[in-house]
Amino acid sequence: MSLLSILIAAIAPGVALLSYFYLKDRYDPEPISLVLRLFFFGVLIVFPVMMLQRAFVQGFGENPFVFAFITSSLPEEFMKWFIVFFIIYKHTNFDEPYDGIVYSVAVSLGFATLENVLYALLNSMDFSTLLLRAFLPVSGHAMFGVMMGYHFGRAKFDPDGAAKHLALALLLPFFWHGVFDYTLYAAKGYWIWFMGPLMVFLWTRSLWKVKRANAKSPLRMATREDRVKI
Questions:
Q1: Going by C-beta distance under 8 Å and a sequence separation of 6 or more, which residues neighbour residue 113?
Q2: Short-list 105, 111, 136, CA closest to 199
Q3: Calpha distance 201→195 (Å, rounded)
């Protein structure tokens, strides 16, 4: 594959998934410039995460369980959570529960896209391998972003449960990301038999969260009232 083909194949899954979840915002789509800014922040955190992971490998070794949860999942999901919380959580454009999903997915896919590009360039991947990565790591990052964003949305619009949902916005992606990575490392030659059901579960759960977040939009209620008045 040519360099241009590799770059397109590595970038396309992240862009396609971000477009999909952006278009799922039924009532008040977010400013594209702001979504792209969060995507870019996701790209930027790849480098500090790589440094943290290198330090963790030297400190904890490469035990599959420790590597999956501590070296891989923890720094990645914490940095995504940190960006969403400090950059967008209190922003005026975050005005309905689904917005948490849009912004969290943008950060997650920014991270996943650059990670995918680096893997492709450093490992001379062919198209079939890049396609597999689109269905697994890139798609997985999107699902973890949905989990994170759903609970950011709950926290923003449920002040009484804000602390609980802010914690879940980090803990659930951390847990499922760790499960995802550990399955790949531990199952080895027969990982497909475990990853298939896991991905079906993650996608089914994520689409349910998308539907539920849209259903809780205050703008949905306003639209209904306007229809009744007409």
A1: 10, 11, 13, 14, 15, 39, 42, 43, 138
A2: 136
A3: 10
Angle value at C-alpha 51, between 50 and 57, nearest 5 degrees: 85
CB 186 within 8 A of CB 193: no
What's the full length of the chain, in residues? 230
User: Among residues 95, 207, 217, which one has the least CA distance to residue 156?
Assistant: 95
**How high is the mean pLDDT in each 10-residue block of the chain (230 residues)?**
78 94 89 96 96 93 91 97 96 93 98 90 69 80 97 93 96 97 83 87 96 85 46
Does an H or E element contain 206, and which?
A: helix 192-215
**Phi and psi, residue 225, nearest 5°:** -65, -40
pTM beyond cutoff 0.85: yes
Query: Cα–Cα distance between 5 and 17 in angstroms, integer?
Result: 19
Please report the pLDDT score of residue 85 as a whole number. 97
d(CA 9, CA 2): 11
Token output for 87: 């950059």
Task: Count CB-CB contacts under 10 A for residue 155.
Answer: 22
